[in-house]
Amino acid sequence: MVKKLFFRNVLALAAILLPANLLSAQNSASQTDLKEFERVDICTRNPKYAIVTKDGKKGIYDMLLHQNVVPAQFREVFFSRQDVEDSLYYSIFFAKEGIKVGILSVDEETNFVMSIWLDDPDEVLSLDECTTIDQEMTKRVGKQLKRFIKKQKLENAQIVIMNSQTGHLKTWIALEQDMKKEDAGKLLTHSCTSSVTKPFHVVMALEKEQLTLDSICDGITYRQAIKTFNNPMMRRAIFGGYRRSAAERKWEEQTNTQRRSTNPLNMAVGYNSVGIGGRMMCPTLRGDSVETEDQVLPPSILATLKDVLRVDRKESPQLAWLTDAVDWLGYATTEYIYAEEDRELKTPIGRELQFIGVFPAENPKYTICIVADKKSLDIEPSVFQDVVNPLSQWLLKR
Which of 225, 264, 279, 365 has CB atoms 3.0–4.6 Å from 233's, for a disulfide? Predict the structure, then answer.
């Protein structure tokens, strides 16, 4: 949350200290009739202005002059306060859009808007305070990931490695094909689907329905459905074990690449708990602290997950590429990527690939999660062998 002390006089200071690309100003906005907005929320502390909503986006409207101050283009807008400087009145708002948070100062006489945009701490994570990062590992992984992106012509890729026993984050790297883009390389709270968590929700749904991995549906077992990444069967299991609204939410989080719901670290924490007996250990990214919760997974769920996630290269063709020099608990998935404007998800334009592994399967040392996007349908998780196989063997020798 942006603190009040940060608001006061920050715009004047920023004009001197911040790069130009973080500052913006406007004295006019495209006009939309008040009747066209879906919602109008008048600011109680300054009724001259209202926060208006259109097509799910928010803007600022002058109720006295009947004109748009800021068009409805932001994810969130909040009124903060009114300032008076040299008999001039300013209304201060803050807004959120994408991974940015903005402070907007509106001159109440002219409706001229000055704004500063910075990374939203709720959307962009930082390792600046994390003291557990292994620099040697990070340098090695960074080089491998860079070569991997170039060879496979990926849009982006990121990798997380955590110590399974301590819960310490050892490395987290995000790279893009075009590292010159403004937000390239940032660690995002919501950067991928939770696709590889499907086995968790299938197993929990089966438990609710008093079914087992070896229960048969449409001629195959649920074990086979998970092992062969049979999406229709896994979806059927989830919708059978949860209320429809919960099932729809879970399925969207796992499959909808237009609304990325999580990040590789969150998924690594979940899988790591299976390898270490159900204990959840989550790095806080502050110092070496780890939030720990004992026995998050019930024993029956834990045993079933450990059973079905044990990698058998014959049963799991999508994992046949994994080196047999390492014994794994793991999973690999792929989801279609659609253009943002393709709301009906009709025409895929690429794929999101995920792999997660805990190794060795017994008494594990590391958990690794790698995620990548490519604007092509002709790619499978097997491409991860170029990174995962040499990296896992190197890690076990350290």
Answer: 225
Phi and psi angles of residue 76, each rounded to the nearest 5 degrees, phi first:
-145, 145
List the beta bridge partners of residue 337: 350
Residue keyed to tokens 């001229």: 112
Q: What is the pLDDT of residue 183?
A: 73
Tokens 């994994």 correspond to what residue?
Answer: 322
pTM of the predicted model over 0.90: no
Residues with Cβ < 8 Å from 248, sequence gap 6 or more?
A: none
Q: How many CA atoms lie within 13 A of 69 on its CB side?
A: 30
Of 257, 275, 292, the closest CA to residue 357 belongs to 275
pLDDT, residue 59, reads 96
Q: What is the pLDDT of residue 1?
A: 39
Q: Which two tokens stand for residue 394?
A: 């190197």
Distance CA 93, CA 115 (A): 9
Written as six digits, the tokens of 360 are 């060795």
Q: And the tokens for 377?
A: 């349908």
The CA distance from 337 to 348, in Å, is 6
Q: How many CB atoms lie within 10 A of CB 373?
A: 22
CA dihedral 233, 236, 242, 246 (to 10 degrees): 100
Which ranges of the chain have pLDDT less than 50?
Answer: 1-23
> Which distant-in-sequence residues (6+ apart) come within 8 Å of 19 by Cβ?
none
Q: In the numeric block, which tokens belong to residue 178? A: 């075009």
